[in-house]
Amino acid sequence: MLAAAGGLAVAATVVAGAPAQGVDQHGGGRGLALTGVPANAKVAGLTVPNTLSPELAEWVAAQGSNRLENATADLPFFGYRGDGPLLPAAGDLPAAGHLVEASKTEPDKNTYLVLHGQRGADPHYDYGTHFVFQGHEAGATGYLTRVNLDADAAHRVTLLSTATTDGKPLPDFDGSTWDPWARRLLFTAELGASGGVWQSTLDGTRTEDISGALGRGGYEGIQNDSAGNLWVVEDSGGATVPGTNAKLPNSFVYRYVPSDKGDLTHGKLQALQVRSRRTGAPIAFQPIDAAHPKGNAFSDDTKDLHTYGLSFDTKWVTIHDTATDPASAGFDANALAKAAGATPFKRPENGQFRPGTGFREFYFDETGDTNATSTANDGYGGWGAVLKLSQADPKADTGTLSLVYNGDQEHTGLDNVAFLDADHVAFVEDAGDALHTQRGLLDSAYLFDVRADYARGAQPVRFLAEGRDSSATLDSAFSGRTGFQNDGDNEITGIHASTGDPSPQGILGAQRPTPFAGGWRLFWTQQHGDNVLWEITRR
User: Fold this and answer.
1) Is 119 exposed, middle or buried (0-12, 13-18, 19+ CB in 10 A)?
2) Alpha-carbon separation of residue 249 from 53, 190, 242 (angstroms)
């Protein structure tokens, strides 16, 4: 797989769905050949459509202007609050206490489920059996929605919940998943000391904060393993090292081991600890202080973690146990992970188990510094990375960590992840407006072959070059102006491949995906601007 000179056009094809070497097989399926496409340039004032591999197509499953069922005055739309018009009125100007346009709510990560007997606002309507659930990332408060894929426009999106069962408003949410043992939707809030994990019934009538057991942190990625444990990935940016534009590694990978996998309110929270190849000691958080003016942003261990061919011993360290500390209000997981000598990473936002490995291989990304001027870009994880944690089984206390891919200016800000078969995994960029401008490119989604040797120059295939819709183009142009609810360029989020099986056999990683066959469906959200939920299909 080769990238053309200049880092724009990718002349490559990858086959997804081919049999994996040395990996258990879970079904067949016709292979999917994907041809790489060039990235879309960021040009001031220019609206650009998304570009997909020519073998693929996409259709709108929902968009921000869809009116909600069960709507409230504050939440009338899928992607907008009720605090202003969807578009500014001609001649309207911002003033104190007056918004000229509605605030966007940013539907985020997607959870697809096939269910029977789901209800909505209309007791006489058949809502079908195919649904996508998501939390919303922006606004004064959060909320939960369900996209009814089989429904007409009037019944397309149902508002499920705006508050917990005890009446507390929901926070803004990022991650989501379905726990088949607890029979609960799970949502994560990337809000540091106010973040954590919330659970909800499918109809939203019982929504609870369970951060007393899982802790508070900048949580984003969340998913089960086959033992009923929850793996949680944190996105908490670190302090900037003066004069470098590099940030300290400050986020952790967690595993929650419930006492009873049908009840998530009791259990142990663990954090991943990686041992130095140089000293054998844990690679722990190092703040900036007089003795360490750069913290550990440029340490030998940080460089080693981002060096191909090296393997590191790992261990799970328990940082909290409800059996000894039933702290109902929640605890600072990030602080406890640091105190326990767990290993921080550069914003490892999401992860997923490789299908067919018996939950023995967990791939996760680092977003990095998302700054082309960071001096950590040269070998210290500034561009981000893809890493693999290998264990004998998902319950094991020890394992090994290795680098799969080191990011670069063209492939950086990696965020959400989805395996499309046992050998090919999609990672999508969330580089941010500043880096878009620095490199002159908008975000992309890439397909990585986990068998490839990226140390020798192999590159992933760009199968989606995100464009910029008209709303995001205006937002970018008006960025920084008060009174306008501007959130800049579009972002890729919520990449999600699933059959929608709500049983334990349907958790991500349990089945080998067969793209667009056997009930497998692929979704992503184009955040900001029009806030569109897309489904990708075979052309």
Assistant:
1) exposed
2) 35, 16, 15
Residue 233 near residue 220 (C-beta atoms within 8 A):
yes
pLDDT, tens digit, 9 for 90 and up, residues 219-257? 999 999 999 999 999 999 999 999 999 999 999 999 999
- Give CA separation, 308 vs 147, 182, 393, 407, in Å: 42, 39, 24, 12
Residue 98 lies inside a defined structural domain of this protein? yes
1: in domain: no
- pLDDT at position 425: 98
Integer Cα distance of 2 and 439 in angstroms:
20
User: Comparing C-alpha atoms, which of 191, 194, 167, 179 is closest to residue 230?
Assistant: 179
pLDDT of residue 23: 29
**pTM of the entire structure?**
0.94
Residue with tokens 């921000």: 64
* CB-based contacts of 243, cutoff 8 Å, min separation 6: none
DSSP letter string, 464-490 = EE--B-HHHHHHHHTTT-TTS----S-
Residue 6 domain flag: no
Q: For residue range 384-433, what is the model confidence (pLDDT) as tens digits?
A: 999 999 999 999 999 999 999 999 999 999 999 999 999 999 999 999 99
CB 155 within 8 A of CB 120: yes
d(CA 246, CA 244): 5
Q: What is the predicted pLDDT for the residue at 483?
A: 65
Q: Are 365 and 407 in contact (CB under 8 A)?
A: no
CA gap 203, 383 in Å, rounded: 40
DSSP string, 334-385: HHHHHHTTPPPBS----EEEPTTSTT-EEEEEE-----TT-GGGTTSSTT-E
196: left (phi over 0), alpha (psi -120 to 50) or beta: left
Render the burial of 73-88: b for 16+ CB within 10 Å, e for the rest: eebebbbbbeebeeeb
Residue 427 in domain: yes
What is the full DSSP assignment across 255-278? EEEEEETTEEEEEEEEEEEEB-TT
Q: How far is CA 30 from each of CA 45, 405, 537, rounded to the nearest angstrom?
A: 42, 27, 14
Can you give the CATH number for the domain in which 445 is found?
2.120.10.30
Whole domain around residue 361: which residue ranges? 13-538
User: How many angstroms separate the most distant Cα atoms in the chain?
Assistant: 69
Question: In the prediction, which pLDDT does 441 show?
Answer: 98
Which tokens belong to 283?
A: 């690679």
Instruction: Give dist(CA 423, CA 20) in Å, integer.
Output: 6
Domain count, the chain: 1
CA distance 391 to 263: 25
Task: With residue 305 as reference, give the H or E element that holds it.
Answer: helix 300-305
Q: What's the token pair of residue 366?
A: 């680092």
* Short-list 407, 404, 403, 406, CA closest to 312: 403
51 Cβ contact list (under 8 Å, min separation 6): 37, 38, 40, 464, 465, 467
